[in-house]
Amino acid sequence: MPQPKKSEALLGPYRALDLSDDKGLLCGRILADLGADVIKIERPGGDPARRIGPFYHDIPEPEKSLYWFAYNVGKRGITLNIETADGQDIFQRLVKTADFVIESFTPGHMDELGLGYKALSALNPRLIMASITPFGQTGPKAKDKACDFTSWASGGALYCAGDPDRPPVQLSFPQAYLHAAARAALGSLIALYHRGQDGEGQQVDVSIQESVMAVLMDAPEMWDLNRFVFRRKGYGLVHPSRGIRQRFGVPCKDGYASIYMMGGAPGVILEHMKAMIRWMDEEGMAPDWLKDLDWISDYDSAKVSQETIDRVEEAFINFLMTKTKADLSDAVIPKRLVMAPILDAKDLAIHPQLAERDYWAKVEHPELGEAITYCGPFAKLNQAPIEIQRPPPLIGEHNMEVYEQELGFSRSQLSALKSAGVI
Amino acid sequence: MAAKRALEGLKVIDLTWVAAGPTITTYLADQGATVIRLESHTRFDVYSRLASPFKDGTPGMDRSGFFTAHNASKYSATLDLAKPKGKEVFWKFIMWADVLTESMTPGTMKKLGFDYESVSKVKPDIVYLSFSVYGQYGPWASGPGFGQLASSMAGLFHLGGWPDRAPAPPYGAYADYVAPPFTAAAILAALDYRRRTGKGQYIGVALAESSLHFAAPVVMDYMINGRVMNRNGNRISRAVPHGAFPCQGDDRWCAIGIFNDDEWQGLCQAMGDPAWAKGPKFADFLGRKKNEDELETLITEWTSNHQAEEVASRLQAAGVPCSVVETTQDLFEDSQLKHREHIRWLDHPVMGKHIHRRPAFKLSKTPDQSTAAPTLGQHNEYVYKELLGLSDEEIADLLAERVITTEADLPW
Questions:
Q1: pLDDT, tens digit, for every residue of B366-379?
Q2: Phi-psi label, residue B272: left if phi above 0, alpha if psi -120 to 50, beta otherwise
Q3: Is A206 helix (H, G, I), strand (E, B) or coil?
Q4: Shortest Cα distance from A337 to chain B (angstroms)?
Q5: Can you identify the CATH homologous superfamily of domain A3-214+360-419?
Q6: Torsion from C-alpha of A347, A352, A355, A357, nearest 10 degrees
């Protein structure tokens, strides 16, 4: 693979040992994208996250999980049972030359194995260890049970979303763990910066609950400043002081779109409102009362009535229902609209902006005999571009590379470790 | 003595605005970087500083909770970049800084004369971030820059809500909180690269592209299997029950997710082992999945007779993943968040105090520290005198010529 170039990557000289489950997989993916040598350490037989669908051609096998692919591409993979004494010994040997460890066990579990931060930092004081848990390493709930969905609830995101007449609702592709894992990568690199100055490593204690709280925009401030509890109101905006509601989400001919329908101060939104009315008028769908509205004085959210809002929104929706997502997409740039169709996976796959920017990354999967399409780099860099280093690891794919070539185990020792269930 | 901070000594000149960009630079500022947010009174961060909620509900440029939610720990200085002298001063900021961050409409920095090409000629080792919704080039490059729209374009909002209804996505400019950790990670990796090689870096981030990683398997499911995933309420394929269940009180809920037989047994035990739960219908995962509607109804009968807190503590005692569906008010009373001191109150010259959600990660040796989000131009004297080293005379001239601005034309 790209060995000669490696030191040229942003994180080229560094190695991460990734013990995490689905709570932390994205962290290692980010470090691998940035050029680090990330070794995913799985239990013998494979990591439970390999059981998460969807699957390649719907074949539910551990080496065909698209979830696994997405968050492990670019990593190498070995198997190791760190619950055994031999496994612990091998892990400690690996830690001596590692820069990062990523783990997501219940607080205290790594300590019980003799692999807690204290023990590992004694072996390698420069080590940076990211620990990703539902509530952080300490506190009254530190060992509470959680899943992605309950973390979405304990961080406050669930309560704020949904239709008023139904339960609070999630995003159907769970998000809480991803937020925590991305923040674990950030925290680890902040620690790396510090290490570059002072030489010392440290532990990065990531709370999934707190990671979810980070997505609440200004809702906690609404409570703190105005004693207003934000409640789910479909897809729209509520003005706490007046109780009026404005929609963001609207139906169109073949789906939905997000659109600003607001007045008030001059600016891009006001120009967009005028452009919308012109477009509606061109097609004979702007009633006179709508054309006569003064968007600055009549439609200021500090004054406008709910009745007027509903009437305006109805007129917009009547018009938008004659347009497809593609029609709207084509109109946004030339008409300078503050709008976007709500895209599904199919729309994304053919989106001209992503195609023009060559966003999608093809990665050869020799075991499947084809190239798989992945989400591309999360940033474009000029000196040291992000590149996917390799396909996601098969179970134990790099055992020989690591155990034999690097750590110097003999084949017979490896056979013994395999039969003992260590690797 | 105050503890060391991880990013002590790192210098950032910040031209980002609204939510996502300032979130990136707050990550740096909370860890000790010196971040100067540059605005002017004619072109200040209007979508943030004039956005509700306001302290006591009274609008004012230095009273916005939206602004404080995104700008803790930074310095604020004012500079009119449209004036030639403002440009001269900005070059001094560039020479001072390690990192320049901007989230203007693509092309704006070039018009101002501060695009990466121009800046890197003068300062080759600068780490330069251009952050926008769709990226710096391509047919949508100039597309509208709001988080709700980016969340829609990144395939995320399609997945929020019920299958028989319009999308009901997470509150707010959701993707504005997805892209920042990726972006800040790239900045820090580039700084390490600079430390090793002496080379600077241009970092172009499209918010929609980085956010797509939060739906990656969904897109791959289409690319490979031709399946277009739709929103599906609170259900997921590998857990049952998996949902929010109503409890006693006004709009109180408990979130429960059961992934295996042990957790299912725990739930039954917590509910007092009702007879219905022992039937063959719910004996195994496939049975529970097949009868999910009925199962949810039966669980609801139990939860709605109890307080959410009681449901949560009973289920926790039985080893079942669950949580009260916390309101924003609940977060302020949450024992875990209190223990972690996750919410801080910071002293603010106009608002008295404002809250600050600390980073979601604690660094064991270099704890984060925060100061209040700055009022507009609050640190002009410190920034121009102490950080840029301008003389009193030079500063007086810049003030007189309104290059350093002090007055805004506000609607109130």
A1: 999 999 999 999 99
A2: left
A3: strand
A4: 7
A5: Crotonobetainyl-coa:carnitine coa-transferase; domain 1 (3.40.50.10540)
A6: -130
Q: Quick check: A155 and A213 in contact, CB under 8 A?
A: yes
- Domain segments of chain A as ranges: 3-214+360-419, 234-344
Given CB atoms, is A168 within the 8 Å cutoff of chain B? yes
Nearest to B189 by CA among A210, A378, A9: A9
- Edge-to-edge order in the sheet of strand B253-257: B242-246, B253-257, B322-324
Beta strand extents in A163-301 (DSSP E only): 203-207, 236-238, 245-247, 249-252, 255-259
* Pairing state between β A245-247 and A249-252: unpaired
CB contacts, 8 Å: A348 with chain B: 154-155, 212, 219, 222
Q: What are the residue boundaries of the structural domains of chain B, listed by start?
A: 11-214+340-400, 242-329
| Inter-chain touch B326–A155, beta carbons under 8 Å | yes
At A47, list the tokens: 């990591």
Locate the chain B residue with the closest alpha carbon to A234.
B168
DSSP strand E in B170-311: where? 201-206, 242-246, 253-257
The Cα of A323 is separated from the nearest Cα of chain B by a number of Å equal to 16
**A positions 55-84 inside 8 Å of B (CB):** 56-58, 66-67, 69-71
- How many Cβ atoms sit within 10 Å of the Cβ of residue A366? 8
Instruction: Determine the pLDDT at residue A2.
Output: 40
Phi, psi (degrees; rounded to nearest 5) at A157: -75, -35
What is the ipTM for the molecules in this complex?
0.97
A317 Cβ under 8 Å from any chain B Cβ: no
What tokens appear for B150 in the block?
Answer: 């980016």
Q: Which residues of B touch A184 (CB under 8 A)?
A: 361
Structure tokens at B307: 């307080």
Helix (H, G, I), strand (E, B) or coil at A6: helix
Q: What is the DSSP code (8-state) at residue B2?
A: P
Architecture of domain B11-214+340-400: 3-Layer(aba) Sandwich (3.40)
What is the mean pLDDT of the segment spanning B236-259? 97
What is the spatial distance between Cα B72 and Cα B353, in angstroms, rounded to a whole number? 12
DSSP string, A59-113: ---GGGBHHHHHHHTT-EEEE--TTSHHHHHHHHHHHHT-SEEEE-PPTTHHHHT
Q: Which two tokens stand for residue B181?
A: 């950790």
If pLDDT is split at 50, 70 and 90, which confidence band does A1 have? very low
CATH number of B242-329: 3.30.1540.10
Taking only the tens place, the pLDDT of each residue in B286-299 is 999 999 999 999 99
Active site residues of B: 176
